[in-house]
Amino acid sequence: MGPLTVAGIRYFLAFLVLLPFIARNGKAVRSLPSHLWMRLFAIGISAYTVGNGALFWGLKYLPATTGSFLMSISPLLVMFAGIIWLREIPTRWQITGVIACLIGSVLFFSPGLRPGEPLGIAIVSAGLLGFALFGILGREVARDQQIGTLSLTAMPLAFGGGFLLLVALPLEGLPNFAAIAWAIVLWLAIINTAFAYVLYNHSLQVLTALEMNVMLNLTPLGTAVLAWLFLGETLTIVQIVGVVTVISGVIFVQQARVR
Q1: Spans in the chain with pLDDT lower than 50
Q2: Considering the domain boundaries, does residue 28 fall inside one?
Q3: Structural domain of residue 135, as residue ranges?
């Protein structure tokens, strides 16, 4: 399967998984005001068509850990957008944590880039803007409890995944129906998307967009371990220090809430 096809099928399948759960409250969903439908459409396009579509495409040129770690820049964009859009002012501890995350990113990339990686980084960087908008819009809708968590998760998946499929199939053609590929896509749709994004959107009722996006910077640690086990990708000592520095930044940001 092509990378955009994988993403499109994954997200639209996740919508189908959640559809029976929101169908019981279908009347409330259909009665949503038009401005909220536009907001859900914008969330879907920014998160799944632009953000994740660019990430999947960029992984053709990047190691899995590098692609995941590149997303650690997203909290910086979310922090500035949150100040302007949501009026959520970060504390000094949180700013310190974000800076630590950025330092960790610099350490991670300090060994240099492999051939072809600059193109992959450029593609994923375009997706960063989509993820930042996703975090801000999702936080605004969840914080104000304008819609239920299941609907906030399912409807953007339908918009973003469906639109991505419309783009992917003419470009990449119909996928080969290999059993292992479909098993991976089903896992991504059910566990990594339907289940994970319901938890993500529910958490946005309490956590600010910045806190949530910084917490997601823990993802590269798990990605690095899994990529080492299954893909044979290794990390240098400097890159490991970068991962630890990012984790420290996450602790700073979340500690501010505890205080």
Answers
A1: none
A2: yes
A3: 3-90+113-208
